[in-house]
Design goal:
Two copies of one chain form a homodimer. Helices cover 42% and strands 25% of the residues of chain A. In chain A, helix 2 runs parallel beside helix 7, helix 3 packs across helix 4 and helix 11 packs parallel to helix 16. The longest helix of chain A is centred in the last third of the chain and has 21 residues. In chain A, the strands form four sheets. The first copy, chain A, has a six-stranded mixed sheet with strand order 2-1-3-8-7-6, sandwiched between helices. In chain A, strands 14-13-15-16-17 form a five-stranded mixed sheet, sandwiched between helices. The first copy, chain A, has 16 helices and 17 strands. Chain A folds into three domains: 170 residues, Molybdenum Cofactor Biosythetic Enzyme, Chain A (3-Layer(aba) Sandwich), CATH 3.40.980.10; 78 residues, Alpha-Beta Plaits (2-Layer Sandwich), CATH 3.30.70; 153 residues, Maf protein. The two termini of chain A are 50 Å apart. At the A-B interface, helix 2, strand 2, strand 9, helix 8 and strand 10 of A face helix 1, helix 2, strand 2, helix 6 and strand 10 of B.
Chain lengths: 417, 417
């Protein structure tokens, strides 16, 4: 089953809000085996809506529209659908009763504007909106299903879960789509591609590969499409094993999970604790760790030592070392990692010291130069990196790289020089 | 000038990533006076790309495409454009040199895959990508401009700012568009709208108002469009004065600047220094302050005290106070702010302690309850807030609110209880 998702509303076209509805709907439909061919955002304008309905009627099995169904002036979607499907407008008793009950619960009485929301095209099936007054609508014509829902995310999600998905599931008996995501850290996309070129070219036709890069992270997503779920699962597993035999050093997880979440799960499971001593990352490692709910179980605290004085007074770094080697040095970052771990009585300590830029670089230590150390009771490993000239990216990459070094140490994986 | 924005990539159609590029591009183009008519996400599939190019060539003046330009195999956009515009592929020396320099800086050598990125259609103008290897491309045919850029957000943004907008601005003549942005903190959009309703309704026709909310911040953007720049400037200034007479308490800046950048400028200008003691914000205040280039001039450091033990040992909080009042209390947050300031020898100290959630709430202190204190040599002001039940939003709001409290204290503005 092929589908298009359409979002109606000028607020998206001027960039005032980001369309998060479409991604959520796409995910849900995808899990049901529906393949999304296009996502479109259009103006809340009669002609634009009619054009889009016409565009999709021939090529799509399903068209999902959100937006433009509210009680206020911009209730243009219902009107346009009624014209397109040549509908008479009739008051739907069931919907009217539901709206009345909703208002009673909230202690308001029904206004005329609200009553009008129960007036629907005669040739649609209303989809119940348990969280709001604008019902969804289901039309069918020449083999294409059109579903219209309000744009308010929790109302839309309610209709999708309660009404749309159950109806679709009972209709679909075609292809299954399965995804497998492999998370890599620290390798540029082009390097990864060169490494896995032969494997990629030998992939069976049922499997497609996509590279999804973000700063410091590349996700490799395999998508298998076919009739037989068990067969596709075996196929994906085989390819995953082959892939990992090539790039296992670069992989931190075989599911779509953030590195900070992965580290959190690992520390929690092994009942280990962590502290950080941050210079160039400026609290970003701590902030990324504590963005995970439940992080207080393993993350104890951090000293953000932006000035040398704090490195000396709070982290016991030797003044002589800073003078002789500079704050961005193996000596200093090692002392930071060891001492924060001891000071905060944790199993591990992470430390960073680098030149995030844009200024402060030298020939010997250009902008982007960063030392990272991870310390445990047994050892302290420090490595030097260059994360480039972009301040925000250097901070992000240093954060991810330090967490990945920690992961390797916990799991006993060698960290290459 | 009418435009369409096209995002190419299956990862959006399966809902794995949310398309934030389009909203950002729409905003930027909008500011330049370009009107977005449609935003479309399509598959990274040759035929889908050709169909879309054809669809838009007749109706649009500008088509902006992102995605599918990386160095790897799934990068189909360049091939499709070359076919559509009947291009010969030629190696572009300038682009090749740029790619070589980028790799040299990062300490990698050029692979064959990277060299291929310098091979471009002969009939496009390359748009320089200062942050990456995939150049943008500018094509023109029958009055329509087609611009293709990589999908990685910071690379795309660089090309838009450095290349696309300057080119468009020099092409568009006619109306002048001037914007004035007023930054507010801590007031929900609906409250702000109610406060300024009368002013908004009396705005002259030449001025449009947009509410641009993010967690904790609402930007109010006035846009004036007309022929005469001086006249529009006077008009905007008058409306700004009227607006500030109503909501000056809620405004932290009258230009589009982040609160952390504003605080940075303020501290630098007044030669003042700052440290933070963070519990529930977990390093996010430090991280947000140090995201600003040059922040080492005023930000000294932070103690992220996620556990009570660190609050006691590193920040001198009394164990009795934690037992009697709880870690989320005025007593504790005040001690944290005072002691971090003294310990780090700074002019100001900020402290936070709260329940970010999702668990840990009680009837007396539900999830979202947060104490914030700002301390100076003269005084320490602490306030209690409830930032709601969403963990990430509570952290962001606490960060912004604490910075805004600091701003008010520096500028001698009363902080209401």
């Amino acid at each position: 089953m092929n589908a298009a998702i359409v979002t109606i509303g000028d607020e998206i076209l001027i960039g005032q809000i980001i369309d998060t509805n479409s991604a959520w709907i796409a995910q849900q439909l995808n899990l049901t085996g529906v393949q999304i061919k296009e996502i479109r955002s259009i103006s809340d304008n009669h002609q634009a809506i009619l054009n889009t309905l016409r565009d999709f009627e021939s090529g799509m099995d399903l068209v999902v529209l959100t937006g433009g169904l509210g009680p206020t002036k911009d209730d243009i979607t219902k009107k346009s659908l009624a014209e397109y499907f040549e509908s008479r407008m009739v008051e739907n008793q069931e919907v009217l009763i539901h709206i009345g009950e909703l208002f009673k619960k909230r202690g308001f009485s029904l206004t005329e504007t609200n009553r009008q929301q129960a007036i629907l095209p005669h040739n649609c099936i209303p989809l119940k909106n348990n969280s709001g007054t604008a019902a969804g609508m289901w039309f069918e014509r020449s083999g294409t299903i059109f579903v219209s829902m309000p744009g308010v995310p929790f109302e839309m999600k309610g209709i999708v879960n309660d009404e749309l998905l159950p109806r679709l599931q009972s209709m679909i008996n075609g292809n299954v789509i399965i995804h497998k995501t492999i998370m890599t850290q620290g390798v540029p996309e082009s390097y990864l591609a060169a490494k896995i070129k032969d494997w990629e070219e030998a992939l069976p036709d049922d499997i497609k590969l996509a590279y999804l890069p973000r700063p410091g992270i590349v996700r490799l997503r395999m998508t298998a499409i076919g009739k037989n779920r068990d067969y596709l699962n075996v196929l994906l597993q085989q390819e995953e094993i082959k892939l990992l035999s090539i790039i296992s050093d670069d992989v931190f997880a075989t599911e779509d999970i953030s590195l900070e979440q992965f580290i959190g799960n690992l520390l929690k499971e092994k009942k280990l604790s962590l502290s950080t001593a941050e210079s160039c990352t400026g609290g970003n490692i701590a902030s990324s760790l504590t963005s995970v709910a439940g992080s207080s179980a393993y993350f104890i605290g951090s000293v953000v030592a932006y000035s040398n004085e704090i490195k000396i007074n709070e982290l016991g770094v030797s003044k002589d070392d800073i003078e002789n080697y500079g704050a961005v040095s193996e000596k200093v970052v090692t002392a930071m990692a060891q001492n924060v771990r001891i000071k905060m009585k944790t199993d591990f300590g992470i430390a960073t010291s680098g030149i995030a830029g844009p200024s402060g670089g030298t020939e010997e230590k250009p902008v982007g130069t960063t030392w990272i150390a991870v310390s445990s009771a047994e050892k302290c490993i420090a490595r030097r990196f260059n994360f480039g000239e972009h301040r925000g990216r250097t901070i992000d990459r240093a954060t991810l790289t330090s967490l990945n070094m920690l992961r390797k140490i916990i799991l006993g994986i060698e960290i290459k020089p």
